[in-house]
User: Fold these one by one.
Assistant:
Number 1:
Amino acid sequence: MDTAYAPMHVTVLGDYLGIHLFEVTDDHVRESSQRNYTAKLSLKPIRRLFEEVDMTERVLTLARDVDGDYWLSIE
């Protein structure tokens, strides 16, 4: 399994929460010839928000801007 850490600017429901470090893992074993996911983004840095706010039907967007910075947005 490969692991990387990516700093991302985080915006949730219009509030900018700063830069947080997210773990991203990739493991081909997860696929198991069933078209399962192989990459996983851990939302641990913002886990408490999922306990406080109902995120049902919200849209999570990952993007990289022209400066190479990563952004995670939930609207």
Note: The beta strands are 2-12, 15-26, 39-41, 60-64, 70-74.
Number 2:
Amino acid sequence: MLPVRTEMGAMTPPLKNDLTHTVFVLVHGAWHGSWQWAATQRALTGLGSASVAVDLPGHGFDAPLPTGYLLPGRPGLLTEKSRLAEVTMEDCAAAVLDTLRRVRRYGRVVLVAHSAGGGPASLAAERAPELVDRIVYLSAFVPGGRPRFFDYLGAPENAAARGRSLNLGDPEALGAVRIDPLSPDPAYIEELRQTHYHDTPADRFDRWRSALSPDLPLAVPATPVVLTAARWGRIPRTFLRCAEDRALPTAVQDLMIAEADRAVPDEPFTVHTLPGSHSPFAARPQELAEALVR
């Protein structure tokens, strides 16, 4: 690209292409990991953009499992305290911050969070807004109006959500929200599919559920995240709604958007709607990547 001549005749360096100098930092949701984004990352690469996916503490292929999770009869699955019980929201935000600091030197940074990942991503942005040029919530928790994800999960607007029957045991006693992606019960597995992946091909869904971790550290949905207008609120933000989301219905997505905009009105959400379920990275990663670069 050639330099640009200004009206005064001086030569100025060309502007960087926004896409080729943008890095997407991708934060997964509950029970997933950085692997969740692999197909979307391939699509982003094809569109000329770089990306890096974060593994939050207690997630990904290194996540510790309950001791009986892979044993016949699943001993202790309902009662064994999670080894993730001591993981904090600060720990999760620190993992996001570490990645943001590493990639900042490469140019514009867009932080993308899915579902429960909205809490750690928001706290990271609040801690270091200078590291983020835009934050994108993909059907994700926004603590702008209410500080805990549980505050929205328990709201009347979320009454139509599916998946409550997937939770095992007492989260307070376990220190985690536990599910059983390897359950031998066909009805349980069908509820998992209908909740999160109803538009993902059946053969692909079986691969996805086998990679899920059973434990979400309780701190992720239960810890208050306090945001300020001066820090988080100064970052341009986008919400990607999932139109047929059964895990986090559009009514509660819209509630989070509206309450955040009321709390921080100077930088309101840009809102776009995607077709399909809570998991577009599984069902239509190319469309998701195209939405992100737009």
Note: The chain has one domain: 4-293.
